[in-house]
Design the sequence.
């Protein structure tokens, strides 16, 4: 099987607000530095998520990951985008999981920097700066 053949999108007919696990301390500071716009829109993203639930429509889900290097530090970012473009009033929401890659951590293991819920627009703004 080729990488391009793997599932990247699916439809969720029973959408619920994605779980978040924000980091604390230094890890939270690192996440805020890496994704400054995204971290600030968590409350707005929860409201957007509730709108999907209230509307009771299928939500399209796009899954992707990236491995940017910022200032010599390697990161792994997994994103899950939720959207339905058939309803203009529904804004996209993205769940982002971030960690420092094991080869760059002092312990030799991945260092989790948290899982955050954000608006898709703000996530895209941050991702463009990482490339």
Sequence:
């Amino acid at each position: 099987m080729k990488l391009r053949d793997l599932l990247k999108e699916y439809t969720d007919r029973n959408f619920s607000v994605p779980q978040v696990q924000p980091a604390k301390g230094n890890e939270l500071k690192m996440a805020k530095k890496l994704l400054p716009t995204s971290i600030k829109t968590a409350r707005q993203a929860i409201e957007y998520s509730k709108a999907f639930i209230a509307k009771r429509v299928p939500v399209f889900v796009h899954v992707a990951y990236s491995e940017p290097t910022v200032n010599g530090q390697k990161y792994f970012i997994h994103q899950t985008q939720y959207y339905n473009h058939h309803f203009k009033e529904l804004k996209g929401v993205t769940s982002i999981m971030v960690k420092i890659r094991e080869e760059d951590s002092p312990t030799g293991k991945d260092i989790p920097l948290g899982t955050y819920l954000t608006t898709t627009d703000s996530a895209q703004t941050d991702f463009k700066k990482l490339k």
Observations:
- The chain has one domain: 20-130.
- The CA atoms of residues 18 and 95 lie 7 Å apart.
- The first strand starts at residue 9 and ends at 12.
